[in-house]
């Protein structure tokens, strides 16, 4: 297991897959590296690629706003990152070999943060972390305990932006995450 600085250096120099050749910035992660909650998304979009920070575009702003309304603050309460650290062109879903190449970095981040709660944002992160048999509309909001981590999934905030009907469920899931957070 690498320490933060060495891990960052590995990621910033990574060319294990072609996404590394096309990035403006590698998007490592943000928030409290000792946060009790870790949110995991899919991959950076255009705003993230430009700034080097995760979840800063429209979807990220929605997520940040909802979490703040629940008094969950990025600098204090959670760490946030993605399965893939580099942007896929045109925001396509990452290929499996790209996820596989990047997963050791995420595992190392999880080992360093040691969160109590892991939240997968959207189907891609959920299928990668919780299993291929999970279905986002059916299984969102469910909790499993694995290796001492409490894990769940909710909609990706960009799915909520596309479909207003998902908002109440998204809100309900995040409220439940806040409740779980209160247990630690
Ligand atoms: N979508 C993601 O999955 N991650 C980001 O960082 C931004 C948008």
UniProtKB/TrEMBL annotation:
Catalytic reaction list: Hydrolyzes single-stranded DNA or mismatched double-stranded DNA and polynucleotides, releasing free uracil
EC number: 3.2.2.27
The organism's place on the tree of life at top rank: Bacteria
Keywords: 4Fe-4S, DNA damage, DNA repair, Hydrolase, Iron, Iron-sulfur, Metal-binding
Keyword RNA-binding assigned: no
Gene3D superfamilies assigned to the protein according to its UniProt record, in alphabetical order: Uracil-DNA glycosylase-like domain
SMART domains listed in its UniProt record: UDG (SM00986), UreE_C (SM00987)
Pfam families named among the record's database cross-references: UDG (PF03167)
Top-level EC class as recorded in UniProt: hydrolase
Domain Uracil-DNA glycosylase-like, chain residue ranges per copy: 28-175
Family membership noted in the UniProt record: Belongs to the uracil-DNA glycosylase (UDG) superfamily. Type 4 (UDGa) family.
Protein name: Type-4 uracil-DNA glycosylase
Annotated organism of origin: Clostridium moutaii
């Amino acid at each position: 297991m690498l320490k933060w600085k060495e891990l960052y250096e590995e990621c910033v120099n990574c060319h294990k897959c072609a996404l590394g050749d096309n990035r403006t910035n590698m998007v490592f992660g943000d928030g409290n590296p000792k946060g009790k909650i870790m949110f995991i998304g899919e991959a950076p979009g255009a705003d993230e690629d430009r700034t080097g920070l995760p979840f800063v575009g429209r979807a990220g702003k929605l997520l940040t706003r909802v979490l703040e309304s629940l008094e969950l603050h990025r600098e204090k309460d959670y760490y946030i990152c993605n399965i893939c650290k580099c942007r896929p062109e045109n925001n396509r879903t990452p290929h499996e070999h790209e996820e596989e190449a990047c997963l050791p970095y995420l595992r190392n981040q999880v080992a360093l943060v040691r969160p109590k709660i892991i939240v997968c944002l959207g189907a891609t992160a959920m299928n990668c972390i919780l299993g291929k048999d999970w279905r986002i509309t059916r299984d969102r909001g469910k909790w499993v305990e694995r290796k001492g981590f409490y894990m769940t999934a909710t909609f990706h905030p960009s799915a909520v932006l596309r479909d207003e009907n998902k908002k109440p469920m998204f809100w309900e899931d995040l409220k439940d995450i806040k409740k779980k957070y209160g247990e630690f």
